[in-house]
Amino acid sequence: MGVPSLGLVGLGLAGCVAAIESGPPIANPADLASRVVNETGAAVPVTLRFDWRYADRRGDIAGDGVGRYNPPDSLRVDLFTSGDVAMAIAIADGQLRSLGEIEDVEIPGLEFVYAMAGLFRPGDARADGFVAGADSVLVYGGGPDRKVYFYVREGQLRRVEERIRGRVVQRVNLEWEGGTSWPSEAEYRNLSEHSRVRWRVEEITNHEESHPAHAYDLPPVQ
């Protein structure tokens, strides 16, 4: 994870902007967005167990984690190191919350936290859409300064990118195995801070009963 390679990745992806936006337009991007929201995420409460690793210029830290999901969009993720909770992140009622901290780690925005779990939750903004190869690309932001690109294939979220004035500043890449509702692996990269976090799902458990509401009641992120 050298800094020069990250820079090259960022420049290479930034160069793809024109190609993506000059692709064939999607006739009804709002309809596609609605379908993908409904198709991503399970219909029942789920517990996920995963391994994770965070890296930046200072080095690496790793551990295991637990995710708790209540449909349609309540999500809590606990990251453990040596058996202790290093950080807990939750989303409920459209608000991002956290408890504890990994030193100097900035939590990404709602759409990127959701995306790490394979959930397409872009909010209520209006989308544009383009076709890029095998992917349908839903674009939010509208203005030239900031846009967020969601790459969708076969009803699954494959990649998310935020671009500021055409340059990629953060992204999520997802890998899928089989017909599960959850990605087998996800990686978030902040190209401005040269940091990344990757997790790989080891176990998926479906439940009949919802996780308790208080599990998501963490202090709001300011």
Descriptive notes:
The chain is of the alpha+beta class and 222 residues long. It has helices at 3-14, 17-21, 29-39, 110-116, and strands at 46-56, 59-70, 74-81, 84-92, 95-99, 127-132, 135-140, 146-153, 156-164, 167-175, 185-190, 195-206. Strands 5-4-3-2-1-12-11-10-9-8-7-6 form a twelve-stranded antiparallel sheet, sandwiched between helices. A hairpin with a 2-residue loop joins strand 6 and strand 7 (135-140). The longest helix is centred in the N-terminal third of the chain and has 12 residues, at 3-14.
Give the topology.
Elements: H1 3-14, H2 17-21, H3 29-39, E1 46-56, E2 59-70, E3 74-81, E4 84-92, E5 95-99, H4 110-116, E6 127-132, E7 135-140, E8 146-153, E9 156-164, E10 167-175, E11 185-190, E12 195-206
Antiparallel strand pairs: 1-2, 1-12, 2-3, 3-4, 4-5, 6-7, 7-8, 8-9, 9-10, 10-11, 11-12
